[in-house]
Amino acid sequence: MSQDDSKKSREIAEIAFKSAFRSTRQGPSEGPETPSIESLIAQFEDASQTDDDGVQFWQARELQRLLGYTDYRNFLSIVSKAMEACRNSGQPVENHFVDVNEMVGIGSNAERQISDIRLTRYAAYLIAQNGDSRKKQIAFAQTYFAIQTRRQESIDLEAHSEPLTEDHRRLLLRDEIKTHNKNLASAAKGAGVATPLDFAIFQTFGYKGLYGGLDKSGIQRRKGLKSKDNPLDHMGSTELAANLFRATQAEDKLRREQTKGKIRASQLHYAVGKRVRQTIRELGGTMPESLPPAENIEKVAKRLKHSAPHEIEAGSKSDSES
Fold it and tell me: Helix/strand/coil (H, E, C) string of the chain?
């Protein structure tokens, strides 16, 4: 990856996830048996440690408890899947999963040695991604580690660059969504979403999950857009970020779970959209259908190109469903 590509990736990460941490987190009240999003974040933060090189890590046995697994041997099967995913990504497994031995008390001032694994943030993220997403703890952890990883990238970026304007954020995000929608279409095709009509239905399910039941035409009506307008071309950066997160998570889940069948693929896309919506609610953010429409992205691209032709490259023409 070139330096320019690396810089753009960091910019996209900063844009897509920064807005989630500007919220006041005033979500709906939780029941007595359900930990709040704040308490879950605090538990994960408190469980982390930092080594002598400043690298954040978690102990596998502690992460096991946080993710709701009662049996360590069952949890190790998830760890094995995560290690395989790490290997397949080209990352050295030994850099992220380090076997260690710990002494624990067993009463009467006696101790015994137990095996454990020191996990980097990336390792913990892979474990969450390979866990049982029906568990509330796993569903939370999948979002937590994804956002925290991007948040660190955002901090690194802000230390070395000027903040982007809203127009630049929109253009970069819109361009990124085009790329990821192509990747999502490829993953959906592998699952059996074969025809243009199939893919239109598949996309509708994703929109309905994220927008509380609204399909594309429902979003257009809610935003006061014309039927010919692509809603993505009239989204601000916050709304684009939510849709980018939906697209990337859906693609990853389709490939990871090797989903087969267009109906199952559409149901998966709906579930991912709904989870992103729930995360927005828990963080106290504004629901995407309630965000105001923005200026057509083509006009923004032309204006910025005219004012600073060498500062930004953006495709000014939008695909019908990109």
Answer: CCHHHHHHHHHHHHHHHHHHHCCCCCCCCCCCCCCCHHHHHHHHHHHCEECCCCCEEEEHHHHHHHCCCCCHHHHHHHHHHHHHHHHHCCCCHHHHEEEEEEEEEEECCEEEEEEEEEEEHHHHHHHHHCCCCCCHHHHHHHHHHHHHHHHHHHHHHHCCCCCCCHHHHHHHHHHHHHHHHHHHHHHHHHHCCCCHHHHHHHHHHHHHHHCCCCCHHHHHHHHCCCCCCCHHHHCCHHHHHHHHHHHHHHHHHHHHHCCCCHHHHHHHHHHHHHHHHHHHHHCCCCCHHHCCCCCCHHHHHHHHHHHCCCCCCCCCCCCCCC
**Are residues 206 and 270 in contact, defined by beta-carbon separation less than 8 angstroms?**
yes
Give the relative orientation of helices 262-282 and 196-210 as an angle to the nearest 10 degrees: 20
Q: Which two tokens stand for residue 56?
A: 């954040």
> Tokens at residue 120, please?
């980097």
Task: Give the C-alpha separation, 133 to 138, whole Å.
Answer: 5
Range of 99-108, 165-174, 222-231, 275-284 with top mean pLDDT = 222-231
What's at 199, amino acid-wise?
Answer: F
Q: How many Å apart are CA 162 and CA 300, to the nearest integer?
A: 20
Query: What gap in Å lies between CA 79 and CA 125, rounded to an integer?
Result: 11
pLDDT tens digits, residue range 117-160? 999 988 988 898 888 767 777 777 776 776 666 556 555 555 55
**Distance between CA atoms of residues 169 and 184, nearest Å:** 22
Contact assessment for residue 318 and residue 230, using Cβ atoms and an 8 Å cutoff:
yes
Q: How far apart are the C-alpha atoms of 156 and 2, rounded to whole Å?
A: 18
Average pLDDT score over residue span 210-237: 94
